[in-house]
Amino acid sequence: MTKIALLTSGGDAPGMNAAIRAIVHSCQHHQYECIGFFHGYNGLLNDEWQALTHADVGNILQFGGTILKSARCPAMCDPKGPKQAANTLRKHQIDALIVIGGDGSFRGLEALKAHWEGQVIGLPGTIDNDLAGSDNTIGFATAVTTATHAIDKIRDTANAFERVFIVEVMGRHSGHIAFNVGLATGAEAILSFENCDPSDTAPQLARLISQIQVQQQHNHDSFVIVLAENLWPGGPQALKAQLAEQAGIDSAVCVLGHIQRGGSPAPEDRLLATELGLEAVNAVSRNRDSVMIGKQGSTLQAVPLSGAINDAKPVNGRWVAAHEDVLTEYLIKHSE
After folding, report:
1. Is 128 a catalytic residue?
2. Which domain holds residue 96?
3. Is residue 324 part of a domain?
4. Fewest CB atoms within 10 A around its CB: which of 84, 87, 115, 245?
5. Which of 128, 197, 250, 311 is catalytic?
């Protein structure tokens, strides 16, 4: 009997449980045995696992997090780690390993493959949406929804006090969350890697100051800045200080942080995770190896792991242009 193992690794993403559920159900359908390793790759190193059946995944679709837990595993960056993980898979006579995670998890999968003869399949599970080969990653839609609702609430209090708010969103080194959330909330400014050079923020700071001053002169309203994490040197507090020092602009900072990873997954993530989970098991039955299962348009596809990790996945240029068009129109209108 074919035996499939799965694990969730790295930062958790809403919808991981839906993917686990789909994989287990599909294994039962194919009459494959399925086991899950706990705490990411640490579960492989520590041989921490359990068999998974319908009963284990019957009521997990609506929950965030992951029933298999997750963790970072620095040991997989050491040559001994992948070898030890491979030995665990051999011990359990595993034919294929499915890993739900982001690019770090996939790099671990590539390192493991160098020491193990079985099939390896990746599912894109990260709120950052930074893996090539899939329009969206599992968890992205929920993170955008969560951040949008949070900024809508921030907007209420910002309007009440006519305040400038700097709201930092997650995304690691990608602007997908920043631009989607910024446009969805009507943010006056979006600062991300697509429109701001972290090594030279002076031009963007000058433009931002001008934009805030124009708005303050012409209406009494709030001003929301959506800031991608890891972009601004010193973070949002440094930007707050620079606005005060250079232009006397008072602002408040809100770092949304890990609330973007939590909560019940949005329907879009539940559906995507289910599709990708089912297709991952189909990929095993077709002897696919070293691939990530993604979805582009309405098509499910298997792309090389190396491409998913290394190929660029820029923010849709239309989103960047849409923000610039709105900003330019506003500045022209109020400078006349």
Report:
1. yes
2. 3-139+265-310
3. no
4. 245
5. 128
